[in-house]
Design a protein that fits this description.
Blueprint: E1 4-8, E2 12-18, E3 21-29, H1 35-46, E4 52-59, E5 65-69, H2 79-88, E6 94-101, H3 108-125, E7 129-133, E8 135-143, H4 147-156, E9 160-165, E10 169-177, H5 181-189, E11 195-198
Antiparallel strand pairs: 1-7, 2-3, 3-6, 4-5, 4-6, 8-10, 8-11, 9-10
Helix pairs in contact: 2-3
Length: 199
């Protein structure tokens, strides 16, 4: 099983216009699925006067978790085309939202498909696509006296320190490549005075 996937480095924006309707596209990299509702709520607030807020996302190393919403547009005229763009770019851990301001002229289903797809493509065309690896997070807890030893070990093992609290009792949240996580857990679980937990 591959633990490598492509995603985008930073949020990007795109635009498409047809018969007076404006389609504003926003693409966001995701670290967690929990971000999706927060981002959608923020855009709904910013563009509260827009007619539709269509979205699609893919999540997971193989894009195995996904969803598309037409948000009131005709079925499969908008959410699925946006999702299709994410698939065609072969990226995951990405949310794309297309905000539509209605221009007074109906576009019909073929016109909507083209418009939503074009707006999403414009946003993703501008994105920097990067390769990432699936990581497993661990919480390490130990006494301060072991701090230099643990930090040295983590550096040697190529672990990323995500959060830390260096007090009398130290806590470190770190991440290692998923394929190496079993060996990491086994090694660190055997260190005296160190508590290792998956998070």
């Amino acid at each position: 099983m591959s633990d490598i996937f492509n995603t985008i480095a930073h949020p990007t924006e795109g635009f498409y216009k047809d018969k007076g309707s404006r389609f504003l596209a926003f693409a966001y990299p995701l670290v967690s699925e929990n971000q999706i509702d927060e981002i959608r709520a923020d855009l709904r607030k910013r563009f509260h006067d827009a007619r539709h807020h269509v979205y699609a996302f893919r999540f997971g190393a193989k894009g195995e978790f996904y969803r598309a919403s037409d948000d009131g547009e005709p079925a499969n005229s908008s959410g699925q085309p946006v999702l299709g763009v994410l698939r065609s770019y072969e990226i995951t851990n990405v949310l794309t939202i297309v905000v539509r301001y209605f221009g007074g002229t109906k576009l019909g289903v073929p016109g909507l498909i083209k418009a939503y797809r074009s707006a999403a493509e414009d946003a993703l065309f501008k994105a920097e696509i990067i390769t990432q690896t699936v990581k497993q997070k661990f919480m390490l807890s130990f006494e301060y006296a072991k701090l230099s030893e643990i930090l040295k070990l983590l550096k040697t093992d190529g672990a990323d320190i995500l959060e830390h609290n260096y007090e009398i009792t130290c806590n470190i949240i770190c991440a290692v490549r998923e394929r190496d996580s079993s060996l990491f857990y086994e090694k660190y679980s055997q260190i005296s005075g160190l508590k290792t937990e998956k998070v």
